[in-house]
Amino acid sequence: MGTRALLLALGPAAALGLGRFAYALALPLMLQAWGLSYAQGGLLGSANTLGYLLGALVSHRLLGRVGYRKGFFLALFLQVPLLGLTGAFGYAPALALRLLQGVLGAWVFVGGAALLMALGGSGRALGAYYGGVGLGLLLSPWLFLGVRDPLEAWVRLGLGAGVLGLLALPALPLLQEPPPPARGEGNLRPIGRLLLAYGLYGAGYIGYMTFVTTAVESWTLLFTLLGASALLTGVVWGPWVERVGGRRGLFHVLLVLFLGSLPPLAQKLPALSALLFGLSFLGVITALTQAFRALLPPSAWPGAMGLSTAAFALGQALGPAVAGFFAEMAGQGEGALWAASALLLLALLSLWPRG
C-alpha cells in the first residue's frame, strides 16, 4: 500500500504542486513582464480553478467511463504541454491554458484519490497521497532558479511535471478500479456542512497561496518550507484523524490553517506561517476523506470525491479574484492575505460544534 500511495502521490505533485501552486512563483514575473495588475493576476488564478471546477463536475462520470487508471495517467501527461506553453503567447492565451490545465488537474486529483480509496488506503496512506502536493511545492523554487521571464518559467514547470509523470508510471499495474456506482448509493445530505466548509477553505487557501509571494520577500524559503511541511501530512494528520474522526479532525486542521494564514504572522514570521500552513492545508482533504468513509457507503466515495472537489474548486475559482480585489483596494499584497484569512475563518465557523 505504501509504495502505491507514494507513486500515486506524484500525480498531485505534478498537477497541483507544479501545475497550480507554482503559479504563485510565476506571478511576479508575469506581473512585471506583461504589465498585469493584481486583479488580472487573480483572474489567471481563477481561470485555473474554474477549469478545476468544470473538471471536477464531470470527473466521476468521465473517469468511470474511460477507467480511473487510464484517466489518471492521460490527464497527468496531457497537462505537460499546456504548462510548457503558458508563458509563450501572452495574457489572453494564458487564461485559456490555465483553464484547460485546471480541468486536467481535477481529473488527476480525483482519479488518484478514488484509486487509493479502492485499495482500502488508511488515513496515513491518504495523507501521503495528498501530501504529494508538497513535493511539487518543494521542487518549485529550485525550478525557478535563474529564471528571468515567464516563458522559461513555464517551460521548466512543464518539464518537471513530465518527469514526475514518468516516475509515477510503475503504479499502473498495481492499481484496481473503484467499484461501480450502486442504486441507492447513499444520501449525500450528511456531508452538506463538510462541503460548505471545504468550499470556503478552497477560496481562502488559494488566496494565500496565490498572493503570499507578493507580501513577503523570502519566497524561496517560504515555498521550500511549505513543500517540506506538506510532505508530513500523512505522518501528522493521518493518525490524528483516524483517532478523533474526520469531522473533528477537519475542525482541528482548519484551526491550525487559519492561524498560519494570518498576515502579521506571514509578514513577521514567514517561516512559522509557512510551516503551519504547509503542515495543515493538505490535512483538510485527509480529514474530509476520512469523514466520507465514515458517513457514506463505498460505492458513493468516488462520487463524493467528485462533488467535494467541485465545491472546493468553486471556492478556488472565486478566491483569487476576491483576494486580488482586496489587494488592489489596499494597494499591497497584504490585503489579499487578510481576505484569505477571513474566508478560512468562515470555513472554521461553519464546522463549529452544535449543541
TrEMBL record:
Keyword Transmembrane helix in annotation: yes
Residue stretches spanning the membrane: 40-59, 71-93, 99-119, 126-147, 153-175, 195-213, 219-237, 249-266, 272-292, 304-323, 335-352
One Pfam family cited in the UniProt record for this chain: MFS_4
SUPFAM superfamilies to which the protein is assigned, alphabetical: MFS general substrate transporter
Keyword annotations from UniProtKB, A to Z: Membrane, Transmembrane, Transmembrane helix
Name under which the protein is recorded: YbfB/YjiJ family MFS transporter
Native species: Thermus composti
